[in-house]
Design goal:
Blueprint: H1 2-17, H2 32-51, H3 53-59, H4 63-70, H5 75-87, H6 89-148
Helix pairs in contact: 2-4, 2-6
Length: about 150
């Protein structure tokens, strides 16, 4: 009896979970490529918000409205388009994978740039240090010469 009841409950759950209807395609659906750009910007600005929220607040930037304004869309258009794309997990996963790849590529670019700038900064510091050592040595030599005279 318990097994039958358990199987019946599981069957009802499986059938009831399958009744989701695909949201209708919005009239003002955001193109897939543009949606990827919007999601990318949202990921970046949310990361920035997590790192330094105070700076954004001081500049008067509201991240979500900034993104919507930048891409010339409204929140309802974004919400409808996001729901439409998110209904198909394979499509949405593909979009997120492209965004992830783009973020990783840009991270690598910035790390390479930071490393290059670090090498150049070290070279400048070494050059300055060398000039300071030469200056100190010349001052010491001049003082030593004065003492000898």
């Amino acid at each position: 009896m318990k097994q039958s009841l358990c199987i019946l409950v599981c069957l009802v759950m499986v059938v009831s979970c399958n009744n989701k209807k695909k949201p209708p395609k919005p009239d003002n659906l955001i193109a897939k490529e543009k949606m990827e750009h919007i999601l990318y910007d949202l990921y970046v600005i949310n990361a920035a918000k997590g790192v330094n929220r105070k700076l954004l607040e001081d500049k008067g930037i509201v991240p979500e409205s900034y993104i919507l304004k930048k891409h010339q869309i409204d929140s309802l258009q974004f919400a409808n388009s996001n729901a439409y794309y998110a209904f198909d997990p394979d499509v949405y996963k593909g979009m997120v994978e492209k965004i992830k790849t783009r973020l990783e590529n840009e991270k690598k670019t910035f790390e390479d740039l930071e490393k290059k700038e670090g090498v150049e900064a070290k070279r400048r510091r070494d050059s300055i240090r060398k000039r300071n050592e030469q200056r100190r040595d010349s001052i010491k030599a001049a003082l030593k010469k004065e003492v000898e005279d």
